[in-house]
Amino acid sequence: MQNVIQCVTMAIEVISMVTQVAKWGNSQGIRMDKRILHNLGLCIGDTVEIVKSGEDIILKPTHGIDWYLQGYERPAPAEGWEDVEPKGREEW
What we know:
Layout: E1 21-24, E2 27-30, H1 34-40, E3 48-53, E4 56-61, H2 65-68
Antiparallel strand pairs: 1-2, 3-4
């Protein structure tokens, strides 16, 4: 029996920029090029998670419930339950 090795090549777009930490009111901020924001699907006002991993800083988009429910269609209620009486403390 032969061992089969499958190789997958992925094209990954790398966008890099150098920026600096700047004073932003009473806080500090980092400006990002709009190409990076667009690539991440982020808009002004979106929230992100910042993770420190060793010497690296990882920036991850966070999504609200609306993002997760995109394209979800609520199923129609099951038929035949309209006349069923509760057996416990359920409230219809």
